[in-house]
Amino acid sequence: MIDLRSDTVTRPGAAMRDAMFNAELGDDVYGDDPTVNRLEEIAADMLAMESSLFVPSGTQSNLVALLAHCQRGDEYIVGHDAHTYKYEGGGAAALGGIQPQTVPFDDAAELPLDQVEAVIKDDDFHFARTRLLALENTQHGRVVSIDYIKQARKLCDKHSLVLHLDGARVFNAAVKMQVPVSEISRHFDSVSVCLSKGLGSPVGSVLCGSVEFIEQARRWRKVTGGGMRQAGLLAAAGLVSLQTLVERLADDHANAEQMQELLRGTPGVTVREAWTQTNMVWLDLQKPADDGFVAYARDNGVLLSCSGQLCRLVMHLDVSSDDVSHAAQVIRSWFEKNG
Ligand SMILES: *Cc1c(COP(=O)(O)O)cnc(C)c1O
Question: First and final CA of the chain: distance in angstroms?
């Protein structure tokens, strides 16, 4: 099966399994798992942050970040379609009493800063206290520019807001821009990075920030049930991700471009070409995808994630250039008959 549903579907390869098998372990809740400690050090170094915390998922990472930065009755500003807002079960509100204030993403995957500024609330007891701005990079595969991030930082400084990055795929952004990831992360107070997407680990995220912030986040990780014991088994995979699987993200980006090339001109399909910036290709279909297309693709060895008339094809470690050619041919063959 060629699985294009997400970059979360990768299976650990031989080198990663060896590292997991041979990992030196301790009890991480006591802080003495050497492999977790090493992962946290290396992640903090790469992102040029003081400290970091290994957590089971990106959802928990964003959640403990919000819980550490905000109090009950605070508010965070977030994209209307951001993962933190839309795809994490409303955790910040449900568990932290932290209210989301959404702003729509524009075509460049940015939150227009005039609109952000307009929703920052005055200090008045009628209002929630605006405390934090959350950005996402990449956002639906699109790269958010460093220039924009700098402007967002300025706005946050002006209004004493904390700036958080949901950087689930921030390494895709860094590789695409050909900059060290620290060129992106250094503008933020905290950054969450998924190890289990394009970086190929089976489980895990790292949350990075100041020593003080990470102490608070560690407390919330325990509260939310994320304190793990011999977690070095998993952190060993994360080390392999950070140390050996970052540069190869460029292959996924090249595969996405190849996919776009091969699908261009398919009847009944419009590729959102401006969005093909990293490892995702987005297709607008003339007809709903559940009219037989997704089932046809599955029957021909290609797994797709579609919703309504929109499909997202995601490239990753377990998708080769030949797989791209085959998948594109399967997709074209459906639309040449049914488009
Ligand atoms: C996947 C993802 C997350 C959350 O990750 P999980 O590990 O699935 O909880 C957060 N933000 C973005 C943008 C993501 O794509």
Answer: 24
